[in-house]
Design brief:
Elements (H helix, E strand, L loop, with lengths): L1 H7 L3 H11 L6 H16 L6 H17 L3 H7 L3 H8 L2 H15 L8 E7 L2 E6 L2 E5 L9 E5 L2 E4 L5 H10 L8 H6 L26 H13 L8 E4 L3 H8 L38 E7 L4 H4 L18 E4 L15 E4 L8 E2 L3 E4 L1
Amino acid sequence: AAEAFVSAGLSRDDTVAFFLRGAALVRNEDTLQDYLQGFSHGLAGKGVFSANTLLEIVKYYIQYVDQHPAFLFWLPEALTEDRQKLITESPWFRQTGTAYAEKLQNLSEDVPKFSDRVTLQGNSFIGVRGGSFLLGGDSAAEYPVKVEVPDLYVLDREVTREMYRRFLEKNPAWRKNALDTLLKEALVTEDYLKDLELAGEIDLPVRYVSFHAAKAYCAWLQEELPESYSGWTVRLPYEAEWEWLALRDDRNEGIFLSTGITGPQAVQNRAPSSLGTYDLSGNLWEWCENWFYPAGYTVENGYRKIEDSYKFETGAEKAVRGGSWANRREEVTIRSRGSQPADWCTPFIGFRPVLVRE
């Protein structure tokens, strides 16, 4: 990328902006090395890399951490233990880390609350009051940032086979017999809707659906919104919204790997969480709206509107949350993050839309 920028004559400011955003992709020493080589090449341009170039990178890093303090903690996680100490045992790191920790201690957290319920095309959405919390608050590898989530409605369960069949009735372009076209457009993989027509409960959550298929389902619901919901949008939840909702999900009701579990389960005869939802944890991983970046939310923090928090408009994989029937309960928490290519259709991923005012 740096070589392409130099050849194309991209401005220095644009090159710097690109690499500062790219910091969220650093996850180990190999990617850190590639990142620094690219950054230095982009800064040097057609000139010669020098000590001054390296000092410039350090200067930009200090400015970056000043704007995104949580990123301070992410970088050492990418290093081996001996190199971690070079940073974490420095007076500067200790002072900055202590100041950030004190700031977090002074932040109050709200609790998501049930408000009301609305039904759209057989989809039952639960209203949830917005609030603020520490995203990634108890994760060992992620460092928390303050997040404000708006009021929203969330589907009380993962989209079921029957719900998805109603969508297919109105949207022939997404039926299984259109697979060749969907494959050509890289919207799905060969396994799309692999088990939709198998005998079984119609209330089982639909799986083998790609991110693109989930978005198409949301777009269909959007078209069906009554006039009273003018100004509202149906989409997938951003990771922060999903985590906010999952804070009130009763993990004991989630479906995880155990004796007799060979796939996702319907919600019949199971109690909902205290929020009124089913299976935010377990059963199926759930597609999220945003692209997955390892250090994404240490970079994009300090925001008010949730859609402003995920500035990365492109990426390699979409984020998924929640775990599935194939995971052991102790392996996945509500803070666990995963990702998959947007066209993948697997037996482990489903989705649930949210309804938000935008």
